[in-house]
Amino acid sequence: MNAPIRVEALKLSRSLVGVIGTLALVLGTVALLCGITLSLAGGQPDLVAKMGPTATRDWAGLLSAAAQITAAGGLIGFGTVLAWLFGREFADRTISGLFALPVGRARIALAKIVVYLIWVVAVSLVLGLALLLLGSLFGYGSPDAEAWAGLGRQWALGMLTGAIAMPVAWVVTLTRSLLAGVGCVIGLVVVTQVAVLAGAGAAMPLAAPALWAMSRGTEVGVAQLAVALICAAAFVALTCASWARLQLNR
Amino acid sequence: MLEFENVGLRFRGGAGVQGLTFAVTAGEIVALVGLNGAGKTTLMRLALGMLRADHGTVTLHGSLMAELPASRWREVGAMVDAPLAYPELTVRQNLTVARLLRGTDPRLVDDAIARWQLGPVVDRRFRHLSLGNQQRVGLAAALQHEPRLIVLDEPSNALDPASVIVLREHLAERARDGAAILVSSHHLDEVARIADRILVMNAGRLIGGLDPATPDLERTFFARVLEDDEHRGCTP
């Protein structure tokens, strides 16, 4: 298993998509938070109304806004990189070279997912550290216990958001299309937003992690988060099975 | 080493291959020739597990394809459709990727770089290489582990004359070492130089063989294809 993981890690670390994805997720979130904070400091009434109870210039406000950005933007960023990890083999036509190898295609697919998840954990950690630095720069002082818990939830939200993007890998495999994967990412975001607006967020595995982080763990329980992880694991299994049975008949 | 027994596959659109029966034995170079769309690439995909036959059996190293232990694929070197090379990686990194996926000796990468004269471009990204150099990297990646079964689809595409000679010598060397080699090509003169046998494919079927020593190979090939088309009633 070690060899395909090394190969996939090399490919992601040398790719422009990996670099841009990382920068977009970390710097993009930081830039948005800076904009929101500066607007709040400027007392923009429209923004204050839109942000609701999170429109505060303190750790709670910062982390709540970060959770909202991660819920949508993180899903788009993570999902796009995941779509590329799988879809590039079809787009670059390298998929034919992944046959007739002593390493099975299911293991190659699993290696892609392992490398993706390691990257998600790393990006989420860096984003958490960036938020810590940002809060300090904004003068929110040393984080208290509640802020540390919020930072922990933010890190977990990043990882859970990466996990719930997993259907993208399966869709790309079935369609052999990178664009279909990106379309799936957009679809996941839309479904999530609709579910939240319809009040079914907690029961919806796609929306549960974001609601959990934004409600500080009050509206979503461990069982609902576990369902989200089980769904992600199911799509990992489906993706690996599809790669194992893959044929180049299209 | 590689054996097809009455192999057939029909695609959804109707095209495909049928009744494919042939074998490539150790130490033998078999060339597959045919017009575009004859089914050469489909045959090669069937040989490498990229497609599963509707009927018939494909046997590799004495085992049915479905029962072949994963480790035996290490003895196969193939390039069909496109090289296993990633545009963002350098030549050396791409060869390392191929080596890692086969679990072979790291020194083989340097040997392949020397054999395929890739030294001047070894640290250049694959996307920045000329088509010919990309083809050489693909061939080096497919052959660096000295496989015992080689399957190459149009390997001389985009190669300069010097690289064609490297390819020809390498395949001859592998055959002398006992490798079985199946190679498709449009270049009949090139095929005549390297092949022990030539298989002619037309309309998804193997329609016979040609002797590489045939004086006017091109004329004989076209005559064979025309005869088959007439026999099938396809000629206008």
UniProtKB/TrEMBL annotation, chain A:
Ranges that cross the membrane: 16-41, 61-87, 108-134, 154-172, 179-202, 222-244
Signal peptide: none
Keywords, ordered alphabetically: Membrane, Transmembrane, Transmembrane helix
Highest taxon of source: Bacteria
Protein name as it appears in the record: ABC transporter permease
